[in-house]
Design a protein that fits this description.
Blueprint: E1 6-7, E2 14-19, E3 22-29, E4 32-37, H1 40-53, E5 64-65, E6 68-73, E7 76-80, H2 82-91, H3 121-134
Antiparallel strand pairs: 1-2, 2-3, 3-4, 5-6, 6-7
Helix pairs in contact: 2-3
């Protein structure tokens, strides 16, 4: 890229531009870009430079990205997957379920005969994957997932 960005060593979708105290982070996912910079002026210059190189539209401040809602506050960002959770509950046909306290049994033993396999393993795997992705903003459910 001629704009001076370098690829992150830890994430192939992340590109970083550094010049002195100035820094820009560019996260690229398919045809979506999330940009943040150390100053709003630098962010504006970066967007303008990118628009000269690529056909792109500035959608303004980040509100939603990959199932994560972003709410900006003066002291930082609040990330939430509330709608994503509601979609998972709907897909699992559990919208009428009632919440309850369920402490994790650390000594659970799986019986030898656990019954017939699930009728649709693809659906089960999809829900398990969705729950795994949910742990990004809900690390408290990691063990249960």
């Amino acid at each position: 890229m001629t704009l001076g960005f370098t690829k992150s060593k830890s994430d192939t979708s992340l590109f970083i531009y550094k010049q002195g105290q100035n820094i820009v982070y560019l996260l690229l996912y398919v045809d979506d870009i999330v940009l943040t910079a150390s100053t709003s002026a630098l962010l504006r210059r970066t967007i303008d430079a990118l628009q000269l190189e690529f056909s792109m539209k500035d959608l303004g401040p980040l509100h939603h990205f990959l199932g994560i809602s972003v709410h900006q506050h003066q002291d930082g960002l609040f990330l939430s997957q509330r709608q994503y959770i509601l979609d998972i509950v709907e897909r699992a046909v559990m919208s009428e379920g009632k919440p309850c306290s369920t402490p994790v049994d650390t000594h659970a033993k799986v019986p030898a005969d656990i019954g017939p396999p699930v009728s649709d393993p693809t659906h089960y795997k999809s829900l398990a994957g969705a729950l795994h992705y949910l742990t990004f903003t809900r690390p408290d459910i990691s063990y249960a997932v």
